[in-house]
Design goal:
By secondary structure, this protein is mainly β. Helices cover 7% and strands 40% of the residues.
Length: 459
């Protein structure tokens, strides 16, 4: 009997404690949203990329749940499943659109094209509440689209542009500097936007001057003619150094690579072609380049009308590429030479691996958006190549881009010897060029939407 009384007393104490605990329980007044996303949808992958920020405001003011960036172009919003996480589970949450009121179950599907959309949250105590407006947008322009515009259809008067006028553009310090030679004199035009151009006088370059062969390396421009090296640090004033008394003759500038201005030389005795680099106002023959036989360039190495580009390879090593052109005897070639540095300089002919590449002269190549773009050029029969070619493997293979995403304007005529530069805002400028009909002095600007948007964000 006494044992039973002890058990009864213990149960009574437990019940009293439980009643007291019940009395101390308070329902939550928390109404804040902790996280807002969309459930992944394989048919609509842009949804999963959405990143939202949340601005809380106390009732009756309206807070915001907004997308940090517009959703991917083409993202469909007519059947979207929002995923909402709350600080503490509320008693209810309601989505309200202009034509729908939906009590949230956690598996809701909404048409986010019908905006504005509000989310009302009621706390567990049913007394406190909060409201959010959900803001988001979809890119109305395709990020993979190239946008082209003709900036000017005639930079200078026709009488100053005979049939085979040459041009070379250099971009530096926010300005496009365009050298133009009409066979009688060299002129300089400068522009910040490709539309408005200011003429400048040039002093010290020879007449005539093959301005297309001007090479920019660091803060210096280089040009070779008549065994003389011409240099300039301000575009306008040029100085010359005579190499007539050296054991080699100067043929042409080649490429800016690994911080050095490379050039093509010719031995005066053997007439063999050599590689050289400019050091100050001197030139040194490069004898330690792998791929050369007795430091002599192959006979099929181009000396003119080639396209040259230096860039960083996918393995993050400096690389330069020399495409097409004409040999010392004037033969058009289909070669693609790569210069690279890995425990020493090396020269490799990629055209051995891809011999189907046609002969090509008068083209221009840039690196843009992690691939190479080639503009214009002709083959040995002066037949036009495509106005534009892409390479995604650093020049091994080339293909015509999808014209639905990248196509020059209808006013653009097929040509060779156009000059192309890219500015720091990711604008591509295609300037001038030549065809059998004569020379062009028009200017076209283009950009990839995705890169342009990124550049504008960083301003």
């Amino acid at each position: 009997m006494q044992r039973f009384l002890y058990i009864f007393a213990a149960v009574a104490l437990l019940l009293v404690a439980c009643d007291k605990e019940k009395e101390e329980i308070n329902l939550s007044t928390e109404t804040r949203v902790d996280k807002f996303t969309f459930y992944a949808d394989t048919a609509n992958p842009g949804l999963a990329e959405a990143v939202f920020k949340i601005e809380h405001k106390s009732w009756p003011d309206t807070g915001r749940i907004y997308c940090v960036d517009s959703l991917r172009f083409g993202t469909c919003l007519d059947s979207v499943r929002p995923a909402v996480t709350y600080k503490i589970t509320p008693s209810s949450a309601i989505f309200k659109t202009p034509d729908t009121t939906l009590v949230s179950t956690g598996a809701d599907t909404l048409n986010f094209n019908r905006r504005p959309i509000y989310l009302y949250v009621q706390a567990a105590d049913t007394l406190y509440k909060r409201c959010y407006r959900i803001d988001l947008a979809v890119h109305q322009a395709d990020p993979n689209l190239y946008v082209w515009k003709e900036m000017t259809n005639q930079l200078f008067a026709p009488q100053s542009a005979p049939q085979y006028c040459q041009m070379k553009a250099v971009y530096d310090n926010g300005l496009i500097s365009l050298f133009v030679n009409n066979g009688f004199a060299t002129s300089l035009y400068q522009s910040a936007d490709g539309a408005s151009w200011k003429p400048e006088n040039v002093n010290g370059l020879p007449v005539p001057c093959q301005v297309r062969n001007i090479l920019s390396c660091g803060d210096t421009l280089y040009y070779i003619a008549n065994n003389k090296l011409y240099t300039s640090t301000n575009m306008v004033q040029w100085s010359e150094t005579d190499f007539s008394d050296r054991a080699f003759g100067l043929v042409n500038m080649l490429v800016a690579f690994d911080g050095k201005a490379w050039c093509i030389l010719q031995d005066r005795d053997s007439e063999a072609l050599l590689l050289g680099v400019v050091i100050g106002h001197d030139i040194r023959v490069m004898e330690d380049v792998a791929g050369l036989h007795d430091h002599v360039l192959p006979k099929n190495f181009p000396v003119s009308d080639f396209a040259a580009l230096s860039f960083e390879s996918s393995s993050e090593r400096p690389r330069a590429m020399v495409v097409g052109g004409r040999t010392i005897d004037g033969t058009a070639v289909n070669t693609r030479w790569n210069m690279e540095y890995e425990n020493g300089y090396r020269l490799v002919d990629f055209s051995i691996e891809q011999p189907s590449f046609n002969t090509l002269t008068g083209t221009s190549i840039i690196q843009y958006n992690d691939h190479l773009i080639m503009f214009g050029g002709v083959d040995n029969d002066l037949e036009w190549r495509s106005d534009m070619l892409y390479s995604d493997d650093e020049g091994m293979n080339w293909y015509v881009p999808d014209t639905a995403q990248n196509m020059l304007p209808k006013s653009y005529a097929s040509r060779q010897n156009q000059t192309v530069v890219v500015d720091e805002k990711q604008n591509i400028y295609v300037i001038g060029g030549q065809s059998l009909a004569g020379s062009y002095s028009d200017v076209y600007r283009g950009y990839l939407n995705e890169l342009k948007w990124a550049a504008l964000k960083n301003e």
